[in-house]
Amino acid sequence: MNLDKYRREHADIISHVQQLKRLSAQGIAAQAAAIAREVIAMSSLIKLHLSVEDRYLYPALQKADPALAAKALQYQQEMADISAQYGQFSRQWNDAQRIAEQPEHFRADANRVLKTLFERIGRENREFYPMVEAA
Protein backbone atom coordinates (compact mmCIF):
# COMPACT_ATOMS: atom_id res chain seq x y z
CA MET A 1 0.00 0.00 0.00
CA ASN A 2 1.38 3.40 -0.97
CA LEU A 3 1.09 5.89 1.88
CA ASP A 4 2.91 8.83 0.27
CA LYS A 5 -0.28 10.94 0.14
CA TYR A 6 -0.86 10.43 3.87
CA ARG A 7 2.75 11.32 4.66
CA ARG A 8 2.52 14.52 2.57
CA GLU A 9 -0.64 15.50 4.42
CA HIS A 10 1.12 14.83 7.73
CA ALA A 11 3.96 17.12 6.61
CA ASP A 12 1.41 19.81 5.71
CA ILE A 13 -0.29 19.51 9.10
CA ILE A 14 3.07 19.76 10.89
CA SER A 15 3.85 22.84 8.79
CA HIS A 16 0.64 24.47 10.06
CA VAL A 17 1.54 23.57 13.66
CA GLN A 18 4.97 25.15 13.18
CA GLN A 19 3.39 28.27 11.69
CA LEU A 20 1.09 28.54 14.71
CA LYS A 21 4.17 28.34 16.96
CA ARG A 22 5.91 31.10 14.98
CA LEU A 23 2.85 33.33 15.11
CA SER A 24 2.37 32.71 18.83
CA ALA A 25 6.01 33.59 19.49
CA GLN A 26 5.37 36.97 17.82
CA GLY A 27 2.59 37.63 20.32
CA ILE A 28 -0.73 35.83 20.44
CA ALA A 29 -2.89 38.93 20.81
CA ALA A 30 -0.95 40.81 18.13
CA GLN A 31 -1.18 37.88 15.71
CA ALA A 32 -4.72 36.80 16.61
CA ALA A 33 -6.14 37.27 13.10
CA ALA A 34 -3.32 35.30 11.48
CA ILE A 35 -3.59 32.60 14.15
CA ALA A 36 -7.34 32.25 13.55
CA ARG A 37 -6.75 31.94 9.79
CA GLU A 38 -4.09 29.29 10.41
CA VAL A 39 -6.41 27.32 12.71
CA ILE A 40 -9.12 27.39 10.02
CA ALA A 41 -6.72 26.30 7.27
CA MET A 42 -5.29 23.51 9.39
CA SER A 43 -8.77 22.35 10.36
CA SER A 44 -9.78 21.92 6.73
CA LEU A 45 -6.68 19.84 6.05
CA ILE A 46 -7.15 17.69 9.14
CA LYS A 47 -10.84 17.04 8.37
CA LEU A 48 -9.99 15.95 4.82
CA HIS A 49 -7.10 13.75 6.01
CA LEU A 50 -9.21 12.01 8.65
CA SER A 51 -12.08 11.52 6.24
CA VAL A 52 -9.84 9.80 3.69
CA GLU A 53 -8.28 7.60 6.39
CA ASP A 54 -11.71 6.58 7.66
CA ARG A 55 -13.18 5.96 4.19
CA TYR A 56 -10.23 4.21 2.54
CA LEU A 57 -7.22 3.38 4.68
CA TYR A 58 -8.80 1.81 7.75
CA PRO A 59 -11.45 -0.20 5.86
CA ALA A 60 -8.74 -1.61 3.55
CA LEU A 61 -6.63 -2.57 6.56
CA GLN A 62 -9.57 -4.38 8.17
CA LYS A 63 -9.19 -6.88 5.31
CA ALA A 64 -5.48 -7.41 6.10
CA ASP A 65 -3.98 -10.04 8.35
CA PRO A 66 -5.54 -10.11 11.83
CA ALA A 67 -2.61 -8.44 13.62
CA LEU A 68 -2.54 -5.50 11.22
CA ALA A 69 -6.33 -5.24 11.25
CA ALA A 70 -6.28 -5.08 15.07
CA LYS A 71 -3.55 -2.42 15.04
CA ALA A 72 -5.49 -0.39 12.46
CA LEU A 73 -8.63 -0.57 14.61
CA GLN A 74 -6.61 0.57 17.65
CA TYR A 75 -5.20 3.54 15.72
CA GLN A 76 -8.63 4.46 14.37
CA GLN A 77 -10.22 4.36 17.82
CA GLU A 78 -7.40 6.42 19.35
CA MET A 79 -7.77 8.98 16.60
CA ALA A 80 -11.46 9.43 17.36
CA ASP A 81 -10.57 10.96 20.74
CA ILE A 82 -7.77 13.09 19.30
CA SER A 83 -10.09 14.26 16.52
CA ALA A 84 -12.73 15.26 19.06
CA GLN A 85 -10.16 17.22 21.06
CA TYR A 86 -8.91 18.97 17.94
CA GLY A 87 -12.48 19.71 16.79
CA GLN A 88 -13.25 21.42 20.08
CA PHE A 89 -9.96 23.36 19.87
CA SER A 90 -10.64 24.53 16.32
CA ARG A 91 -14.21 25.60 17.07
CA GLN A 92 -13.08 27.58 20.10
CA TRP A 93 -10.03 29.22 18.51
CA ASN A 94 -11.11 30.06 14.95
CA ASP A 95 -12.10 33.58 16.03
CA ALA A 96 -9.46 36.32 16.20
CA GLN A 97 -11.29 38.32 18.85
CA ARG A 98 -11.54 35.35 21.19
CA ILE A 99 -7.83 34.60 20.70
CA ALA A 100 -6.89 38.23 21.37
CA GLU A 101 -9.04 38.33 24.51
CA GLN A 102 -7.73 35.04 25.93
CA PRO A 103 -4.16 34.61 24.71
CA GLU A 104 -2.96 32.46 27.61
CA HIS A 105 -5.99 30.20 27.42
CA PHE A 106 -5.31 29.80 23.69
CA ARG A 107 -1.64 29.01 24.43
CA ALA A 108 -2.55 26.35 27.00
CA ASP A 109 -5.10 24.69 24.71
CA ALA A 110 -2.78 24.84 21.71
CA ASN A 111 0.10 23.34 23.67
CA ARG A 112 -2.06 20.47 24.90
CA VAL A 113 -4.01 19.64 21.74
CA LEU A 114 -1.30 20.28 19.17
CA LYS A 115 1.25 18.30 21.17
CA THR A 116 -1.11 15.32 21.16
CA LEU A 117 -1.68 15.71 17.42
CA PHE A 118 2.05 16.11 16.72
CA GLU A 119 2.91 13.00 18.74
CA ARG A 120 0.22 10.98 17.00
CA ILE A 121 1.47 11.95 13.55
CA GLY A 122 4.97 10.95 14.61
CA ARG A 123 3.76 7.53 15.77
CA GLU A 124 1.92 6.95 12.53
CA ASN A 125 4.96 7.90 10.45
CA ARG A 126 7.48 5.92 12.55
CA GLU A 127 5.48 2.87 13.61
CA PHE A 128 2.16 2.38 11.87
CA TYR A 129 2.88 3.30 8.25
CA PRO A 130 6.02 1.13 8.06
CA MET A 131 3.96 -1.77 9.47
CA VAL A 132 1.30 -1.21 6.79
CA GLU A 133 3.89 -1.02 4.01
CA ALA A 134 5.60 -4.21 5.20
CA ALA A 135 2.34 -6.18 5.07
Structure in words:
- The chain is mostly helical and about 140 residues long.
- Helices cover about 85% and strands about 0% of the residues.
- The longest helix is centred in the C-terminal third of the chain and has 32 residues.
- The mean pLDDT is about 95.
Average pLDDT = 95
Q: SSE order, as H and E? A: HHHHH
Q: Determine the fraction of residues in helical runs and give it as a percent range.
A: over 70%
Structural class: mainly alpha
Q: Count of DSSP E strands?
A: 0
Distance between the termini: 8 Å
* Global geometry: elongated
List the helices and strands and how they pair.
Blueprint lengths: L3 H22 L6 H30 L4 H27 L3 H6 L1 H32 L1
Helix pairs in contact: 1-2, 1-5, 2-3, 3-5
Task: Describe the structure using short key phrases.
single chain; 135 residues; elongated
Structure summarized in a few sentences:
This protein has helices at 4-25, 32-61, 66-92, 96-101, 103-134. It has 5 helices and no strands. The relative contact order is 0.16.
